[in-house]
Structures are given as C-alpha cells and as structure tokens.
Amino acid sequence: MSERVRRGRPGHDQQSVLRVAIELFNRQGYDATSMGDLARELGLTKSAIYHHVPSKEHLLERALDEALDELTAALDAVRADASATPEQRLRSAVRSSVVVLAGHLPAVTLLLRVRGNTPAEKTALARRREIDHRLAEMVREAADAGAIRDDVDPLLTSRLLFGMVNSMTEWLRPETDVEQLADTVTTLAFDGLMRHD
Which residues form the HTH tetR-type domain (predicted)? Predict the structure, then answer.
C-alpha cells in the first residue's frame, strides 16, 4: 500500500505524532479522541495537525499495522526455521509474542481493544483472525507430533495460550525484564506449575 509522505512541521515527525495518538486512543478511546485533542496534546493548532497526518483513521490504521506487522514478522521467522520441531516452533511463537507485546505495548494494547467499528478496525480484526489460525495450526502440528496433548481443540488451546500473553497489556511495566518474562511465560505454558523432581 503506497501512501503519500508527509514531512510534518519542525518539532514533530509522523512517528512522534503516531506515538501521541496511540497514547490518546488508549487513554480516551478511539471514538472519543478528536483531531483537536491530538493537536492540543502536541501543542499544535487543529489545522496544523493536518500537516502531519491526513486523518484520525490514518493514525489508527498505522498503529494497528505496527502491532500486526510485528506479530506477523515474528510468526514468519518462527515458521522459517526448518530445523525446529513443531514443539520448538510453538514455544518460539509464544516467546516471540511476549517480546513483540513488550516492545510494542501501546500499539498491541490498542489492537486488543478494537471492535470493528471502522474500516481500519475491520481490517485489523481480519488480520488478527489470520494470526489466530496460524497459531492454531502450530498447536495442531505440535499435537500431531505428540509433543503436546491432543485432546483439546487446537484453536481453543491457541486462544488460551495467547490470551495469557495478551493479558500482559493490563499489568506489564516498562522496567520488566522482557527476556525473563518471555522465558517464564513459555515455561509455565509448556511445563506447568507442578514441580517435577
């Protein structure tokens, strides 16, 4: 998808405008946030904001694409590892999703809140469903290989696994050690809480 490049005025670039927009959308809700709100937050006039971005929907689309593109790239990388077993790929997918969530927390938080009220949200939800099906396929492959239990529906298992990951948007803090968190989530998801002495 091609888009016209807008340079913006001194002091703000598209990325800084996007960061502020995501923060406002998460704080106030997308529907309740106006371009005037964004302009005020940036210290611009309402007309000046349009030198930076064409519309509020454009900002939402870019924010949702950020989260979805990162998740898709992480899954592509996992899938590309031909030497990995199905279990290793599934573990890597869970671990990578934690790292992506932590690295793009505001955008992922916004993604998890969309309900399909705008064209950008509908597109994002369709992409999320595609990711859900890819993850379910990884669960199915691991079950078929005998690496994980096969008596639970793969899509349900995938939703439960990644629901645990997604819940981090509610409590994750910037000072969290992401690598340790990713290791802990993966260990709990696959090895459980019980001690195996």
Answer: 11-71
